[in-house]
Amino acid sequence: MADEAGIFEQLKQAVMDGDEDAAVAAANAAVAAGMDPQKAIMEGLAAGMAEMGRLYEAEECYVPELMVSSEALYAGLGVLQPLVAASGATDARGVAVIGAVQGDIHDIGKNLVKLMLEVNGIRVVDLGRDVDMETFVEACKEAGADLLCLSALMTTTIIAIKDYLPDFKAKLPNTKIMIGGAPLNQHLADEWGADGYGENAMEAARVAVRLLAAE
Amino acid sequence: MNSQERWDALIAHEPTDRVPCLQFMLGHTAVVNGKPIAKIYDDAAESLACQKNAQALYGHDGLIMHGWANAGGAEFGGDIEFPYRKYTGAPLMKKNPVQSEEDAWNLAVPDDILSVGTMPISLEISRLQYEMGMTVTVQVGSPLTWAGSICGEERLMIWVMRKPDLVHHVLRVVTDFIKKKADHWIDTFGAERLMAFDLCIETNKLYSPKHFEAFGFPYLREVHDHMTRQGTSIFLSHICGEQNKNLPLWSELSYGKRGMVSVGKEVSITKARELFPDLIVMGNVDPVTVQEGTPEQVRALCKECIEDGKDHPGGYALMTGCEVPPQAPPVNVDQMVKACREFGQY
């Protein structure tokens, strides 16, 4: 009988070690054991990334460690996610569109938010960086987005968020809008009418889960 | 004192009449001159004129320079976009010159460093500064920040974990480029006329102090030593963002005859004073408040900073914690010199 707990632990540890080969091996072991792929993702891979997030917030690891952990996570997802899709499972928590706004090419923070949203069972459509503001609306409508996440890391690009938020809220009445990035804070998020803000990727994911649960 | 006298006294470590106001102000100077922000970066004469005019307008006591945080990539063949588009405020790396491990291993210092990337513009600004009798500024890093511009920050961070030797190779090449650049500026303008500066974004929100110790500090030290040994008059480090855990190492760097450190809101002026007792400490008004706040909020922040810093034995100047936002309301920026006059008298 497959040691389900043992395979979960292998998946989790592979992510924490940033070991892509071990993540793929453990994912294949989960498949061979006939485990539920979604469960393997959430209780193995995602659990590992969640622990890395906790360590980051405790300042016991930093972004380079998160980056290599994410490589291992995505390697494992490469094995398991197609099986989830094939099973017809729907988006567990919702769909999010994310991007760094027009003029902003900084995307490390955005990529970490994307990662943590996926770890929390949210499907993410990533528009990348330096995204024309009009593109966000089109992408949200096409994806049926429950959540739009706007990232900006410069004082010039946060102005794009301030300028476009009212327009986005009018055009996307069923989409919650979150903002994030170093120059931003809860006060500006509230003042500009955003539905949520996260100081870091882990907090952003927690806020996103709360916003989607409230729908 | 007029601005020049105040600057000269600050640099000479002599008393000033009041706390100086120094501004890391680039794109904003174009805005108040009614010019495109990009002119600050791609047109030497226009850049100098905008910065001088803005200084006359606001009454601050310096700085006039040419540089930006994500520099270095264009000098090694990357695609750079100057900020002509709406919402852009500084040059952007559209494509990093290093896209693979092979690219990184093949990275080399160009034969003619003066013709690559934005070097011609930087050199022209320095030449104009020299001819006008001004302090001649030269950006010399940081090597790790430049390496991020060359390789892409995310790619570099993964290599920090998986391919440290490769990162050291890139840093070696970058540092050699910077030292070659420094040598040319010293030979051309004289070390006595120079203010070297490094803009360093290797914050502890990204890198651990151990990463900084391994990949940041050794190369910073090499550049600082190289320039200060040759008599560079002033060395300014902009220690951007949350770098509290890096500060002890920053304090070990050589700053030559007159050192200056600027810190953001994440580093208290009190802590900066403790760690840099002999250096000019500059900061740390929150730029976001300057852009999004009220004049009253800016004035209050300035008052706090001045009270924390004005009696620093090494010298203190009021400054924003990072670049003055290009689109900051002038009525807010204006509060800074006013605050120095109101709260900073000696």
Description:
- The complex is a heterodimer of chains A (215) and B (346).
- With 215 residues, chain A is α/β, with parallel strands linked by helices.
- Chain A folds into two domains: 4-86, Orthogonal Bundle (Methyltransferase, Methionine Synthase (B12-binding Domains), Chain A, domain 1); 94-213, Rossmann fold (3-Layer(aba) Sandwich), CATH 3.40.50.
- Chain A is 61% helix and 11% strand.
- The N and C termini of chain A lie far apart (40 Å).
- In chain B, helix 7 (143-151) crosses helix 8 (153-162).
- In chain B, the strands form two sheets. In chain B, strands 3-4-5-6-7-8 form a six-stranded parallel β-sheet. A two-stranded antiparallel sheet of chain B has the order 1-2.
- Chain A binds chain B through residues 18, 59, 61-65, 67-68, 71, 101-108, 111, 130, 154-160, 182-183, 185, 188, and chain B through 27, 83, 85-90, 92-94, 153-154, 157-158, 160-162, 204-208, 211, 241, 287-288, 291-292, 323, 325-328.
Layout of strands and helices, then pairs:
The complex is a heterodimer of chains A (215) and B (346).
Chain A: H1 4-17, H2 20-32, H3 37-57, H4 63-86, E1 94-100, H5 108-119, E2 122-126, H6 133-143, E3 147-151, H7 155-171, E4 176-180, H8 186-192, E5 196-197, H9 201-213
Parallel strand pairs in A: 1-2, 1-3, 3-4, 4-5
Chain B: H1 3-11, H2 27-32, H3 39-42, H4 44-58, E1 79-81, E2 92-95, H5 101-105, H6 119-131, E3 136-139, H7 143-151, H8 153-162, H9 164-189, E4 194-200, H10 209-229, E5 234-239, H11 247-250, E6 258-263, H12 269-275, E7 280-285, H13 287-292, H14 295-309, E8 316-320, H15 330-343
Helix pairs in contact in B: 4-6, 7-8, 7-9, 8-9, 9-10, 14-15
Structure described in brief:
Chain A is an alpha/beta fold and 215 residues long.
First and last CA, distance of chain B = 12 Å
The amount of helix of chain A comes to 55-70%
Largest interface (CB within 8 Å) is between:
A-B, 31 and 34 residues
Helix/strand order of chain B = HHHHEEHHEHHHEHEHEHEHHEH
Overall number of structural domains of chain A: 2
Mean pLDDT of chain B: 97
Q: How many domain regions of chain B?
A: 1
Describe the largest sheet of chain A: 5 strands, parallel
